[in-house]
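Most newcomers find our protein records easier to grasp once they have seen one. There is nothing in a record beyond a sequence line and a structure line. Getting from the letters to the tokens is the skill we practise here. An example says more than a description, so a record of this kind follows:
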Amino acid sequence: MTIILRITAWLLAAAVTFATVGPASLRPHSHLGQDGEHAFAFILVGLAFGLAYNVNRRRTAVVAVVATGVLELLQFWAPGRHARLEDFIVDALAVCAGFVVTAGVDWATRRLGWSTTAA
């Protein structure tokens, strides 16, 4: 199961990377607005990596926030894209929220005595 979670997390990261630095015309748009789209995408990244790398979740969260910053900086060299501090803040907070949710779910399952491993 871990390998499936990790593959899913990396595929999601690749899709978010393409949407962030790829051509703006190919980026998906929704009714959430720019900040809502950013938050939705990066909370999914946080959830995916929080589930896939739960043993080193704190270190993975730090790497995810740094990667978020790098993605934002890469937009300086992407034609038609622009790097904004506001986008980085939304993205970093959203990715952290995803990690917090997965940590909370892990804590709750341990607290209630539920097993997350197959018997």
Q: What stands out?
A: The mean pLDDT is 87. The chain is about 70% helix and 0% strand. Residues 2-112 form one domain.
